[in-house]
UniProtKB/TrEMBL annotation:
<keyword id="KW-0418">Kinase</keyword>
<dbReference type="GO" id="GO:0005829">
    <property type="term" value="C:cytosol"/>
</dbReference>
<dbReference type="InterPro" id="IPR018484">
    <property type="entry name" value="FGGY_N"/>
</dbReference>
<keyword id="KW-0808">Transferase</keyword>
<dbReference type="InterPro" id="IPR018485">
    <property type="entry name" value="FGGY_C"/>
</dbReference>
<dbReference type="GO" id="GO:0005524">
    <property type="term" value="F:ATP binding"/>
</dbReference>
<keyword id="KW-0684">Rhamnose metabolism</keyword>
<dbReference type="GO" id="GO:0006071">
    <property type="term" value="P:glycerol metabolic process"/>
</dbReference>
<protein>
    <submittedName>
        <fullName>Rhamnulokinase</fullName>
    </submittedName>
</protein>
<keyword id="KW-0067">ATP-binding</keyword>
<dbReference type="InterPro" id="IPR043129">
    <property type="entry name" value="ATPase_NBD"/>
</dbReference>
<dbReference type="GO" id="GO:0004370">
    <property type="term" value="F:glycerol kinase activity"/>
</dbReference>
<comment type="similarity">
    <text>Belongs to the FGGY kinase family.</text>
</comment>
<keyword id="KW-1015">Disulfide bond</keyword>
<dbReference type="Pfam" id="PF00370">
    <property type="entry name" value="FGGY_N"/>
</dbReference>
<dbReference type="InterPro" id="IPR013449">
    <property type="entry name" value="Rhamnulokinase"/>
</dbReference>
<dbReference type="GO" id="GO:0008993">
    <property type="term" value="F:rhamnulokinase activity"/>
</dbReference>
Length: 498
C-alpha cells in the first residue's frame, strides 16, 4: 500500500488528503481541513499564505505520525494569484487576493491599450479582471518599487512548493491561466509583457505537469517527522486541471462542470480554439494534461457561501442542508438572474445585491431565504444550459451527459436542476475530484501508472458516481427562454449605469 498526499487548496477552504493506492484502486481520506479566508488590511484584500502553509505542515506531520512514510506529495490550488520573492527567497508581501477591487480598473486600462481581440488572439484566455496579467498591471500602477525588488513571480502552488523544497518552477496548467502565455505554446508572451512595461524576468521556467521537483527540505517539517525522502511532485497544480483528470468517463468527448466556489464548465480539446466565435462568447483555453480545457468561468457556489455569511450575521440558521431543504419547498422560478453579473464578484451584501438586480429587471425580489436560495440554484442551472449551448455551437458536438465533479457534486438539488435545465443526464462525482486528480498525476510521475488512459480506468474503478435524469423538461425550457430575456435586461441595465 503506497501513501501519497494531496494538498488541495480551494478558494474557500484547504484540505490535506491522504491517498492509499493498492495497485488496483485509489482511496482518499481527509486528514485536515481548514478555512481559507481573505485578510482585509485597510482597503486591500490579501490571501493569508502563512496560515495556509502552517496548516499544510501540520497536516503532513499528522499523516507521517499516524501512517508512516509518505512517498510523495503534490499541491493544487485556485489559479491566477501569486507571490513575489526576492533574490534571497523571501516573500516580499502577502499575495493580493484575486477579488481585490484594484483589478477591475487595471483590466479596463489594459484592454484599452491592447484591445480585447488582440489579448484573446495572443493568449487564448477569457478576459476576467482577476487574471494574473491584470493583477500584475495593477501592482505596477500601485507600487512599482515592489516589482523592482522582486526576483521571481510564483503562483500559489509554485510558491508553496518553493517553501517545501527550495525549487523554483512554474507548472504548465496553472501558468496558462495567467493570460501571460502564448496561446498553444509552452512559453511566456514576453512581447506582451514589454508592451505593458512589465518585467518579464520575474517569470520562472515552465515545467510540465508531473515534474519531480525534489524532496521536502523545510526544516520545521523535517523536525516534525521523517519526510526527508518524500518527493515533491509538481502535479497539475491548477485545481480545475486536477478535477478534469478525475472525470470518470472513457469517452473522448464530454462536458464537465468542476463545481465549487466557482463553476468551471467546458470540455477537453486537443489544441486551443481561438477564433472569432470563441472570442465573442468569451471562452478560455487552459492547459490540461496533454490537452486543453475549453471552458467558461461561472460564479458558482460563491453565491451561496456569501448568502450564508449574510444570513448568519443577522442570526439566521444558514447551514447548507437547512437552506437546501427550504429551497426545495419554495415556489419555482420566482425570479432569475445572470450569476456572472460583475457586482456579484465581491458584494458587501449578496442577498441585497441579488434583490437589486431583480428590481432592475422588473421582477419581484425574494423575501425569504428559501426563495432566495432556490432562485440562485435555478439561475445557476440555467446559466449552465446557456454555456452548454454555446459550447456545442463552438465545438460542433453534442454532449449527451454533463459530468459534475468537485464539492458541488454533492448538492443533489443543484445536480437535479442542472439535469432539468440542460435536458441531459447528469453524472455527479467524485466530490474530491481535485485531490484525486492531484494524486493520479503523482502516480503517473512515479511510474505507478503508465498513461492517462490508465488514470481514467483507475478513477472508474475507484468511484461510484450518482446519476440524475432530466425532469419537467418543458417547464425548464420555458424558464430558459425567460432567463435569456432577463440576462439581456441585466446587461442593458449595467450598460446604462456606466
Amino acid at each position: 500500500m503506497m501513501n501519497l498526499l494531496a494538498i488541495d487548496l480551494g478558494a474557500s477552504s484547504g484540505r490535506v488528503m491522504r491517498a492509499s493506492f493498492n495497485g488496483a484502486t485509489l482511496s482518499l481520506q481527509e486528514v485536515r481541513r481548514f478555512r481559507n479566508q481573505p485578510v482585509y488590511i485597510a482597503d486591500r484584500m490579501y490571501t493569508n499564505l502563512y496560515s495556509i502553509y502552517q496548516e499544510m505542515k501540520w497536516g503532513i506531520a499528522e499523516v507521517v505520525k499516524t501512517h508512516g512514510q509518505v512517498a510523495a506529495l503534490g499541491i493544487d490550488s485556485w489559479a491566477v494569484d501569486y507571490g513575489l520573492v526576492d533574490s534571497n527567497g523571501h516573500l516580499l508581501d502577502l499575495p493580493r487576493h484575486y477579488r481585490d477591487g484594484r483589478n477591475v480598473s487595471a483590466m479596463a486600462e489594459v484592454v484599452d491599450k491592447l484591445g480585447k481581440a488582440e489579448l484573446f488572439l495572443r493568449t487564448g484566455i477569457q478576459l476576467q479582471p482577476f487574471n494574473t496579467l491584470y493583477q500584475l498591471y495593477a501592482m505596477k500602477r500601485e507600487n512599482e518599487n515592489l516589482l523592482s525588488a522582486a526576483h521571481k513571480l510564483l503562483l500559489i502552488p509554485d510558491l508553496l512548493n518553493f517553501f517545501l523544497c527550495g525549487e523554483i518552477a512554474a507548472e504548465f496548467t496553472n501558468a496558462t491561466t495567467t493570460q501571460l502565455m502564448c496561446a498553444g505554446l509552452r512559453e511566456w508572451d514576453r512581447e506582451l509583457m514589454a508592451q505593458l512595461q512589465l518585467p518579464d524576468g520575474l517569470l520562472p521556467s515552465i515545467v510540465p505537469a508531473g515534474s519531480a521537483l525534489g524532496y521536502v527540505r523545510d526544516r520545521e517539517l523535517l523536525r516534525m517527522g521523517p519526510v526527508s525522502s518524500t518527493r515533491v511532485i509538481h502535479t497539475t497544480s491548477h485545481d480545475t486541471a486536477c478535477a478534469v483528470v478525475s472525470v470518470p468517463t472513457d469517452g473522448q468527448h464530454y462536458a464537465y462542470i468542476s463545481s465549487g466556489t466557482w463553476s468551471l464548465m467546458g470540455t477537453v480539446v486537443a489544441e486551443p480554439m481561438i477564433n472569432e466565435l470563441t472570442e465573442q462568447l468569451n471562452f478560455t483555453n487552459e492547459g490540461g494534461l496533454g490537452n486543453y480545457r475549453l471552458l467558461k468561468n461561472v460564479m458558482g457556489l460563491w453565491l451561496i457561501q456569501e448568502t450564508q455569511r449574510v444570513l448568519e450575521s443577522v442570526g439566521e440558521q444558514a447551514d447548507i442542508e437547512r437552506l437546501i431543504h427550504r429551497a426545495r419547498m419554495a415556489e419555482p422560478f420566482q425570479f432569475l438572474f445572470n450569476p456572472d453579473d460583475v457586482r456579484l464578484l465581491q458584494p458587501e451584501n449578496m442577498p441585497d445585491t441579488i434583490r437589486q438586480i431583480c428590481v432592475e429587471t422588473g421582477q419581484t425580489p425574494p423575501t425569504d431565504a428559501g426563495s432566495l436560495v432556490r432562485g440562485i440554484f435555478e439561475s445557476l442551472a440555467l446559466k449552465y444550459r446557456m454555456v452548454l449551448d454555446e459550447l456545442e455551437l463552438v465545438t460542433g458536438r453534442h454532449y449527451a451527459a454533463v459530468h459534475i465533479v468537485g464539492g458541488g457534486s454533492q448538492n443533489q438539488l443543484l445536480s437535479q436542476f442542472t439535469a432539468n435545465a440542460t435536458a441531459r443526464m447528469v453524472v455527479a462525482g467524485p466530490s474530491e475530484a481535485s485531490a484525486m486528480g492531484n494524486v493520479l498525476v503523482q502516480l503517473l510521475a512515479l511510474g505507478e501508472i503508465a498513461t492517462p488512459s490508465d488514470m481514467t480506468e483507475l478513477v472508474i474503478r475507484s468511484v461510484e458516481p450518482v446519476t440524475y435524469a432530466p425532469r419537467d423538461v418543458d417547464l425548464w425550457e420555458s424558464a430558459y427562454a425567460k432567463f435569456q430575456r432577463i440576462v439581456e435586461k441585466q446587461a442593458e441595465s449595467q450598460r446604462l449605469s456606466i
